[in-house]
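ingest -> validate -> predict -> emit
validate: passed (alphabet ok, no gaps, 278 aa)
predict: started
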Amino acid sequence: MSINGRVSVIVPTRNNERTIEACLQSVLAQDYPDFELLVVDNSSSDGTAEIAQKLAHKFFTAGPERSAQRNRGILESAGEWILWLDSDMILPPNSVSLAVQTANEQGVIGVALPERTIGSGFWTACRALERECYLNAPWLHNPRLLNRDFMLSDGAFDEAMSGPEDTDLRFSMREAGLPIALADIVIDHDEGHLTLKEIMEKRYYYGLSIPVLQQEHDAAISTQRSEVLKAYTQNWKHLARRPVHAAGMVFMRVLEAAGYLIGARAGAKRLSQVEQGQ
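emit:
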């Protein structure tokens, strides 16, 4: 691997007209000397595609879900490194440089970029408080910068999942003994104005893929729970300084757990039907 190889930034998107321009502009403003920006849209019905076509170096349409979009981007990329980014995220200008520097200094093929939540409203503030607890919890961060050769040979996103596919990749890397470094930077995740309804719907949707994830990584899921609880315990003083939002965070997490569980039950039923049909 070269010290400063080309980085292919891949952004999958669908109906993200509100956030896509800020996301892509933050990529184009990177101080890294050699990168390309690829957007893979999933048949957006708003103005997302038009904005992306004006700003991206390469634009594609793929689906049916985010995993397939990411994999299409990897196949179309020309970089030595892949950096995948959601279309509601904003990068500080030195993000790519620091990610590549971290990979080279630590000799790893995967680097995580910690996130902070931005937006408005009570539940968004609760989510922001939750993410603050994870900033120094390296086990919980999914890799964003990855070596392209690894992704093509072993690390493509599992298209049987939609939502936990990045967690699946993290679990697979850790089970294979592949370390994931943590870059000394925080990127913004613009979650807008969260509502409990939106939160529950998203967790139910992600929960549909949990049975597939559990088949592959049952032990890692248990470790994930332990690491999350440890992050809360280690940050109890920080949570105690914001008791109202901390209580809201706990309530939100309980509802999310219920959403995951209901989705997982539906997903298990669907998976059983698929297996019986084979």
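Strands lie at 7-13, 35-41, 58-61, 81-84, 89-90, 110-112, 115-120, 145-147, 180-182, 187-193.
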